[in-house]
Amino acid sequence: MRVVVLISGRGSNLEALLKDQQNYSISHVISNNFDAPGIKLAKQFGVTNTCIDWSDNSSAEDYLIDVINTSQTDLIVLAGFMRILSKRIVTIFHNKIINIHPSLLPKYRGLNTHQKVIDSGDELHGASVHLVDNQLDHGRILAQTQIAVNNEKNAQTLAEKLISKEHKLLTSVMGLISAKELVWDDQHLKAFGKKITKPLMIK
Ligand code: GAR
Fold it and tell me: Are residue 22 and residue 65 in the same domain, yes or no?
């Protein structure tokens, strides 16, 4: 399975994927941020990478479509990619784009999810991998992971606690997708050959 990964920054989820690549290979890393540390990681791992100037959304997406098509991509993974893809992209690559988001969706779409968890006094936090539509952090949720909130002092501490679970979640989901143990169409989501109505929980 050939995978393109889109990033905007640090790239720790990308790094987890680069180290994993069990039944899938990362054929291309794309960033809207020319200074993204994740691009350095792609170079270190010898993966083709492209930075796209996103000042004009439409021409940036034209370029993105070209790069993805040239890479003969089976799946597009948004791993800390901080742009909303337009309806055009989501339609062209229908059911082929997944995103990792640091919250138990549908709670807390958008930014500052860790602070929102603290402010709301939640006892549970987590991350979700979902199919991408043209709304922010929205689309069918494939899998989630949870952590307990135990008096973490601030959002940063909570984010640090969650990030290793994010890596586990994303690599596990990629393993399941590449093994065809997690499949979907417009109507259904199936895990291990059975229809599921709730996201898969990854420990
Ligand atoms: C991760 O926490 C990811 O879940 C989040 O950005 C971070 C990227 O970190 N994504 C979103 O907030 C998407 N809405 P990374 O660059 O180290 O993987």
Answer: yes
Residues 117 and 88 in one domain: no
Same domain (yes/no): 55, 123: no
Q: What angle do CA 149, 154, 160 make, to 5 degrees?
A: 70
- 162 and 112 share one domain: yes
Q: What would the pLDDT profile of 116-172 be if each residue is shown by its tens digit?
A: 999 999 999 999 999 999 899 999 999 999 999 998 879 999 999 999 999 999 999
Atom of ligand 1 nearest to the CA of 7: 16
Catalytic residue among 28, 94, 101, 138: 101
Closest-CA residue to 85 (of 30, 16, 39, 141): 30
The domain that holds 119 is classified in CATH as 3.40.50.170
Would you call 101 a catalytic residue per the annotation?
A: yes
Closest C-alpha to ligand 1, atom 7: 80
Record the pTM: 0.97
User: Strand, coil or helix: what is 45?
Assistant: coil
Residue owning the nearest CA to atom 9 of ligand 1: 80
Dihedral in degrees, nearest 10, Cα atoms 88, 94, 12, 126: 110
